[in-house]
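Bench notes, afternoon.
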Amino acid sequence: MTREQGGGARFAIDHRVFDRTANRAEILAGLAERVPAGATVIARASRTSQHYLRQAFSAGGPLPPADLQLLQRDRPDLDILPLECANSVLEEIAAAYRIERAGPGSNMLSRSRKAPEEAQCLWAAFLWSQCSPHQRTSLAAAWQAWRALERARPLPF
């Protein structure tokens, strides 16, 4: 979503994939290049497993930085907002807005194909948890109108 002058909003999805041989550093560099200057990045906060924490603490060293921390280091102009959001909450959002997510146990290809839908669920979670009622109403209406136009758009083949 891009905020327009006069309080409007413009929505778009930029859905691209990385080569399966890309490593973590290459993927993060690719993300850093793609995000517009000064953007707010809404990301689902991942939980660190207890097993991983025990290993890191027993080794005596500091925890390595998380992906969002590395992105923030490379792009200090970004406002990065990690949202803690239970899967059940995203499922409720998907049902309420009729968003089709990848099912539980889906493989990486299925999850990759459904990444735009997952992003929209996270966007809705952001609306409901971070925006005032007035902002939420106007942004949700604009977003739903955009979604209707996208669904009506003919397929390119």
